[in-house]
Amino acid sequence: MSSEMPYVIRSVHDGVATLTLNRGEKFNPLSEEMLDALQAELDAIKSDDSIRVLVLAAAGKAFCAGHDLKQMRAQPSEEYYKKLFNQCSKVMLTIQQMPQPVIARVQGIATAAGCQLVSMCDLAVASSDAKFAVSGVNYGLFCSTPSVGLSRNVSRKHAMEMLLTGEFIDAETARDRGLVNRVVPAERLDAEVGKLTASILAKPAVAVAMGKQLFYKQLELGIGAAYQLAGQTMACNMMDDAALEGVQAFIEKRAPGWKK
User: Which long-range contacts (CB under 8 A, 24 or more apart) does 135-141 make?
Assistant: First the structure.
């Protein structure tokens, strides 16, 4: 594939944007160029009110094989590595901080920073063929940055087992451990992602955005501060027209007439 081909392909349909990692022949590594392309697309989407849901997909057999190790090895300096990992962390945090829910559509292997990418998405649907690993330790590099997202999805001992052994887990195990939400045969992957997007699109955008923001903030707080923030968020949410209409519709036993 020519280097002139876009690293990320964007499509939008009925309020759902899809970003497709477009280096399938190389297993979609998170090179500097891929990270730059992803960041630019995420920044554009997060401020676009017409986009309600983002699906993160990938071309080829693999979802994402993590960082581009050849590119990393070509520039062996601590300054370069710090810059690269900061660049990657910014992408991961943007996914979590943007108002739209982000769904990972995982059709193949997701390793190291690719597994991290799945963990930082709000939801994940995987093909039964997909596999997951944080395999840097096999090459002498503990997956420190991937451990941040991984440890916030699965239990500590499951996370440590993956990080210390570098071994793959299959899609069913990933679902049982909390890394992905749903596992379906490959031919049903798009339909299952469509079910999730349709369910989210049926809800008021303001409630979804406020809820996503609150969810991640309260996880990092003590329980008292978490309840305080949650209460403030619910009070603000309740004053929004969508919530007022939704509650009134419940009282009147009718379907809510939300403005899209």
Answer: 135/66, 135/111, 135/166, 135/167, 135/168, 136/66, 136/112, 136/166, 137/163, 137/164, 137/165, 137/166, 138/166, 139/69
